[in-house]
Amino acid sequence: MDSTPPPSSASPFDMVSSALGQYMPVHGPPAAAGSAGPQGDDAARPDVSDNPPPADQEQILGAVDLDPDLRITRWNLDAPVFAGVEAVAGSPFVGLLPPSDVPTVTRRLRQVLETGEPHVARVQRLRRGDGSELVVSMSILAAAAPHEGLTVSLIAMARRLHLYAAETAIGTSLDIGETAQSLAESLLAWGDVTAVDLDFAVWTGEAVTEQPQGRLRLRRAALVPDRAWPDGYVTPGDDLPGDASRLLSQAIRRDDAAQAIVIPDREAIERVLGSPRLVRALTPGDQAAAVACIPLVLDGEPPVVLGVAEVWRRADRPFADSELFDLQELVVRTSHHVDLARQHQREHTQVLALQRRLLPRSAGDTIQTASVYQPATPDSAGVGGDWVNSFPLPDGRTALVVGDVVGHGLGAAATMGQLSMEARALLSAGLTPDEVLEHLDETVSLLDDVESGLAAGYSALGSTCCIAVYDPVSHHVEVASAGHLPPVLVPPDGPAGPVAIRPHPGLGAEFALREPYDVHAFCAPPGSLLALYTDGLVEDPALSIDEGIDRLTDAVSSVHPWDALEQAAQRVVSAVAPTRRRDDVTLLIARMIGYRKEDTTTWRLAARGDAAARARTLVSELLGRWGTGEHTQDSVLLVVDELVANAVRFAGGPITVRLIRTGHGLLCEVGDTGNGRPRLGPGGLLDDAGRGLHVVHGLTTRWGVRWTDTGKVVWASFER
């Protein structure tokens, strides 16, 4: 049997070494000891005699295999450009690096070991035996099964290739901090310490086109290498002293054009900065003796300076003119990446501000709520469309709403805000949860109607929403869902689990798929917890969605009745949310409190001519026991008389009168079997029609209507 492994099982090291053979001369240098493999199998080296490279072919490829402890097991560094890079079997790979780069590279190596995701095209320096350094593009790959460890491929960087690789690496992130860090790492090939200082407006994502001439407020965005710095030195996240920002601004601006400058020695640096305080703030150490300051400029009329890149060197390494040209070229090439990151940061900040504004503020006296919102990553395509809201309804109930709008960025944010405000307005107007979802469904369909001109390149089809309305008197909750995951209910005594709501397509589904939305009603006695959430909280690649919901149920069940709800919500998210999130995480927890029995009374009356008088008598006795003021009593009795009389006249059937003592006032409800909507008309003094509603309007702080399965309820609120 042929024991030769199939091509698919070749390790990354073998593939890189095979490619390396194409760049080796026919009479190249002998293989380094141990480079063929752990057993010294030279037969594994590809035969390149049939593929001689062109005479001017640059030999730039190398590969190193590492074990899980990051020690070298085999290598192929035969290309002449790697001469002096001394790989030794069993030695740590980081021994090939400058000491200042060891922490960062070690972190990258272990990250690839843990995740299996490659780290590609890092601009890196290698140490030669004579103390000089070689700049390479380093990629880290996980070894192919059944092998363990890593393969590190190395491409020696010619000047043009270095510039190209650096620009490619810098353009891979939309996060302003990571972009600045990538630029600083790339610039390190020309210096010992590099820093990137950005204008504060760039850092925060603000517009920079109206920049005052000669005035920059600089903040340190990146600093390489990662090491302990002297006291007083400006590190990432710190603002540069105002006079330091002014000096740098003046230095790089000459004749209204931003230009690179070089301060060639330590004496000149101290003379330019002018004070020991500024020297400590801007100079990375006693060995720093020369600095090149290169402005990041955004093309325009006039050009706009986004910030300054600084490259520091020791005294024995003066800057050559060609190196300064390379530095300028790299910074010019990458300035637009910095501006793209600024624009992304601006959009990210705007969307996140809208998201935070939609979070619940307060929920009233009958329910406690707490919410948590966590964006996936700062470097995502934009903040997602997750939103939650809880708000008291005018009739004393409380609405809990959670939604997940398709997509990211400003398009999703606009739709999210529109749906959230529309849901709140419709629920406040008395519509039931299923009726609200029907309206939201129509809204999403309209937003996706290209002919109406509202789509603007963004589609919200498939967005989801779940609405729950809590009645603090009956302790009942009504829930309706459009394609959303079910809420989790944890009663004070009884089994916890997801609410059994019938699945329904998301908002904006095709007409043929649309069905009436179901309303599921259940009892939530005082002390119950109800959790509404988005899929980012429970979706984990390692678990099924049902297992994720079970984990959430267990976490919410562990919340103690006297636990502060804000801290409890944070603990639930920490326990349940996937470690590596790909979506936003949103959670809304509500603890039901309700009204005390002595704060609410309900009467059921027959629809007869004496119903209004009977209601006045009952309400008057109750208000007397509650100690209500005489003025408020008179107002409540007049309103009850009008509402009951209207119910007898226009609706018929049994009439329900309910009085609720709230924290700051009284709430009166009159229910009947009619479905007509009472309206406040413009009637004059001699127009009897609708005069009763004018009385109600004048005596109450607010009144309205909500519909039920058997008719309607007219409610009115009073101040005590």
Structure description:
The protein is of the alpha+beta class and 720 residues long. Helices cover 31% and strands 25% of the residues. The chain has 16 helices and 27 strands. The chain has a five-stranded antiparallel β-sheet with strand order 2-1-5-4-3, sandwiched between helices. Strands 7-6-12-11-10 form a five-stranded antiparallel β-sheet, sandwiched between helices. Strands 13-22-21-18-19 form a five-stranded antiparallel β-sheet, covered by helices on one side. Strand 8 (253-254) and strand 9 form a beta hairpin. The protein is elongated, with a radius of gyration of 35 Å.
Tell me briefly what this model is.
This protein is α+β, with helices and mostly antiparallel strands. Helices cover 31% and strands 25% of the residues. It is elongated and about 110 Å long.
Fold blueprint:
Layout: H1 12-21, E1 61-66, E2 72-76, H2 102-115, E3 119-127, E4 133-142, E5 150-156, H3 159-170, H4 176-187, E6 193-199, H5 200-204, E7 218-224, H6 242-252, E8 253-254, E9 257-258, E10 261-263, H7 266-273, H8 276-282, E11 288-298, E12 304-314, H9 321-358, E13 367-374, E14 384-392, E15 398-408, H10 409-428, H11 433-447, E16 464-471, E17 476-482, E18 488-490, E19 497-498, E20 520-523, E21 529-533, H12 545-557, H13 565-576, E22 585-592, E23 600-605, H14 611-626, H15 630-650, E24 655-661, E25 665-672, H16 691-699, E26 702-707, E27 712-719
Helix pairs in contact: 3-4, 3-9, 4-9, 9-10, 10-11, 12-13, 14-15, 15-16
